[in-house]
Write a structure and sequence with these properties.
Strand content: 15-25%
GO molecular function: magnesium ion binding; phosphatase activity
Distance between the termini: 13 Å
CATH architecture of the largest domain: 3-Layer(aba) Sandwich
CATH class of the largest domain: Alpha Beta
Number of helices: 9
Helix content: 25-40%
Oligomer: single chain
GO cellular component, one term: cytosol
Keywords: Hydrolase
Pfam family, one: Hydrolase_3
Number of strands: 13
Radius of gyration: 18 Å
Protein name: Hydrolase
Shape: globular
Order of helices and strands: EHEHEEEHEEHEHEEHEHEHEH
Length: 256
């Protein structure tokens, strides 16, 4: 019996065509919660970016943010954290300064960048997110670094890191996180906190950074528009979010 469902946000639960969660998905989530099933977000976004989206109608039971690096309960209290090792942060800083690559530095309560570019503005607009402020890298813990450059360039940079790994979310954006992190690790800690078994979980995703999540959960569902690598590990492939993919999959498995 499924007791918890984990949703990626962009292009999985949230439609950027509508700039909203489709009504069919909203109603489906309401039904799940009335049945006592936990509904969690599992996203690469920071809490600040989640709050920029018009999703106020739904109260989620918890948030796996920054691809599992910061896990929060419904009141945004930290349940688990996993920051990037300072050694790798220093290497990243040197690479960015040398190559003038635009990046986001993401802390517990802050999201900022080293520069603004037109390409970066387009990327942020495409996912309904605001441009973060320009700031110098602080001495605070950094949980995620987002690189905005080609995958080839990212791979060169990441090859110099010892304690970190990287996952891409589009052709221009890649997230660096702790090598021990990921959405699956975040889910593992959420399940421990809420007393839920791995066998009682379902996950929805569309991107490369959802692969470990779909592999970890009992039932992994890929959206119709999903990354091909994700479709290969999914138990079920549904329609995309704009074609009622969430509702159809939940009906298929008898949850609504």
């Amino acid at each position: 019996m499924i007791k918890a469902v984990f949703f990626d946000v962009d292009h999985t639960l949230f439609s950027h065509r509508l700039n909203a969660i489709p009504e069919s998905a909203k109603k489906a989530i309401q039904i799940l919660q009335k049945k006592g099933i936990y509904v969690f977000l599992a996203t690469g976004r920071h809490r600040i970016e989640i709050e920029q989206l018009p999703m106020e109608e739904i109260t989620f039971d918890g948030y796996i943010t920054l691809s599992g690096q910061l896990c929060l309960d419904k009141n945004y209290r930290i349940l688990y954290e996993n920051s990037i090792h300072p050694h790798d942060i220093e290497i990243l800083r040197n690479e960015f300064e040398k190559k003038e690559i635009p990046v986001f530095f993401i802390e517990e309560n802050a999201l900022y960048t080293n520069k603004h570019t037109k390409e970066l503005e387009k990327v942020q607009a495409s996912v309904s997110s605001e441009m973060p402020p320009i700031r110098e890298l602080s001495d605070n813990k950094v949980y995620q670094v987002t690189l905005f450059t080609s995958r080839e360039e990212v791979n060169k940079i990441v090859s110099n890191l010892i304690y970190s790994k990287c996952t891409g979310w589009n052709a221009f954006g890649s997230d660096v996180i702790s090598s021990s992190g990921g959405k699956a690790k975040g889910i593992e800690h959420m399940l421990q906190h809420y007393g839920i078994k791995k066998e009682e979980t379902m996950a929805f995703g569309d991107g490369e950074n959802d692969i470990d999540m779909l592999e970890y959960c009992q039932i992994g569902i890929a959206m119709g528009n999903a990354h091909e690598g994700l479709k290969k590990v999914a138990n079920y492939i549904t329609e995309d979010i704009d074609n009622n993919g969430v509702e159809l999959a939940l009906k298929h498995f008898g949850l609504i």
